[in-house]
Amino acid sequence: MAKQQTDHLFQLVKSLSKSEKRNFKLYVKRNSSSEGAKFLQLFDLIDKQEEYDEVLLMKKAKDIKKVQLSNLKAHLYKQLLTSLRLNYKNSDIAISIREQIDYAKILYNRGLYMQSLKILDKVKSLAYKYHQIRQIKTIIEFEKRIESQFITRSISTRAEDLTRESDKINTISQRMSLFSNLAIRLYGLFLKKGHTYDGAYREEADRMYQEGLPEYVEEELTFHEKLNLYHAKQWYYYLTQDFRNAYKYCSKWVGLFADQPEMKSIIPDMYIKGLDNLLNACFLSAYYSKFNEIFQELEAVHEEEPLMNIENIRILQFTTRSTHLINKHFMDGQYKEGIKEVPVIEEGLALYKRNLDNHIVLSLYYKIACLYFGDGDYHTTIKYLNRIVDFKDTELRGDLHAFARLLLVICYFELEEYDYLEYLLKSTYRFLMKESELYEVQRVILRFIRRLPYLAHDQLMEEFKKYRTILHQLREDPREQRPFLYLDLLVWLDSKIEKRSISEIVQERCEVTLKGMKI
After folding, report:
1. How far is CA 299 from the centre of its chain?
2. Which residue, among 246, 334, 324, 242, has the nearest Cα to 291 in the 3D structure?
3. Which of 343, 310, 357, 317 is nearest to 15 (CA)?
4. How many Cα neighbours within 13 Å face the side chain of 230?
């Protein structure tokens, strides 16, 4: 049986660009050994496969015996990584610094202590310039090791200077770790349950935030300390629906890179994530004009050729741009324009399927479904919603699963498939009771849809108006805000009452908002 997308060597080979493949072959030829030809044969055979199939591989690998394959694959994997490291040592500052530390270790092992210290001193300056705190810590510990074992007579106060420097870096490193620990824990909580406002889930988020945040003076923090702090605060405020404060700390996050633009090329992923989170905050705060400004900044990253040569950045740029391109059309009501982008997004999802986590994929499916819903194409909406519903792990983004089912209910009502609608209403209610907190908004929506098929045509309008009033009242309740982040049924009801398209209503609101909205 073919082994589908699980072989690490296969994944690594498939991630290589044409130039990286060419450089690898040159590297093998320069360092050729008796096994060089076998490496290249194995490499070429794997490269030609669309899915990893070891049985087919062995049939075509005439010079490779079955007993050799495991060791040969492991060795090829290592050689690929070595080749890639050589490719990126001049473009990745962290790899370059580690290389210099390795050189210092080689000199140390040969007893050339002063030469080793000279390299460490030089590379430490580079590490400070680019805020490579963990690398600085490694360098200082290495310097202390040399100074403690050998009399270098470099500086009379060397011991005290190294001790003070070590203490300072350790404090910075510890704070960085605490801030980043808090950020990842809050992110994990969001992935599991989504947004919150009050209740036991909110208490859990508050407790996590308060217990995980150490004492600090913001003005005294280094670049990476601030970055990790703003990351943590952004997740807390985003998770608890305080989008104005989320916007504040995302702005500070992106502002770090505006103050030190050289860091964009050092940690481009964190720069793009800052733009991503700032765009989310603008979207959820309905700050349309700022959204468009930041979106142009995100688009500009696509023109940065050195950055876009990095696979990780290409993937991150794709997912971030796709998400916010759809959000942009949610805000301006240009659903048909958004739908034109769906084939490109689908192409990217297929291209990066081995690299994307399910959270990103589910989020994009839901957003695409909402695009088609806004355009009135309920059949295609159902197609994308079913991709979410059919995903077995409801622990991941249980909130998306819940609202996908609610939107399915509305689609089947629109299609007048009332026989299936009754079954769907019951299964959706059971799911909501089992998997998530059942908000009053959700109860109202389910009661509303259940009544509609049994009403005469002349009674429908009154029912739409009645439930629009109820939902308007619920929208003013902070505890009921969460459902409106995923499914704004007020626009749908307005379109029914006013007999206009959702797109037309949203476009009109966008124009009004753009005239006077400020944050």
Report:
1. 17
2. 324
3. 310
4. 27
3-state secondary structure 416-481: CCHHHHHHHHHHHHHHHHHHCCCCHHHHHHHHHHHHHHHCCHHHHHHHHHHHHHHHHHHHCCHHHH
Task: Give the burial class of 218: count Cβ atoms within 10 A of its Cβ; 0-12 exposed, 13-18 middle, 19 or more buried.
Answer: exposed
Q: Shortest CA distance to 487 belongs to which of 432, 419, 433?
A: 432
What pTM, to 2 d.p., does this model score?
A: 0.81
Tell me, what's the pLDDT at 4? 40
Asked if 505 contacts 495 with a C-beta cutoff of 8 angstroms, the reply is yes
Cα distance between residue 95 and residue 448, in whole Å? 59
Look at phi and psi of residue 468 and say left if phi exceeds 0, alpha if psi is from -120 to 50, else beta.
Answer: alpha
Provide CATH code, domain 333-519: 1.25.40
What angle do helix axes 378-389 and 398-414 make, rounded to 10 degrees? 150
pLDDT tens per residue across span 427-484: 888 887 776 566 788 888 888 888 888 887 778 888 888 888 988 888 887 777 666 7
* CATH 1.25.40 placement within the chain: 333-519
pLDDT level of residue 216 (50, 70, 90 thresholds)? very high
Separation of alpha carbons 326 and 305, rounded Å: 24
Q: Are 309 and 92 in contact (CB under 8 A)?
A: no
Q: Which two tokens stand for residue 189?
A: 């909580």
Res. 1: pLDDT tops 80: no
| Predicted local confidence at residue 101, as pLDDT | 95
Residues 6+ apart with CB under 8 A from 443: none
Measured at the CA of 210, the angle between CA 209 and CA 215, to 5 degrees, comes to 110
Q: Which residues are CB-neighbours of 221 under 8 A, at least 6 positions away?
A: 175, 229
Q: What pLDDT score was predicted for residue 443?
A: 82
In this structure, the dihedral spanned by the alpha carbons of residues 363, 366, 372 and 373, taken in order and rounded to 10 degrees, is -140
3-state SS of 335-381 is HHHHHCCHHHHHHHHHHCCCCCCHHHHHHHHHHHHHHHHHCCCHHHH
Cα–Cα nearest to 462, from 414, 496, 492 = 496
Of 503, 512, 510, the C-alpha closest to 292 is 510
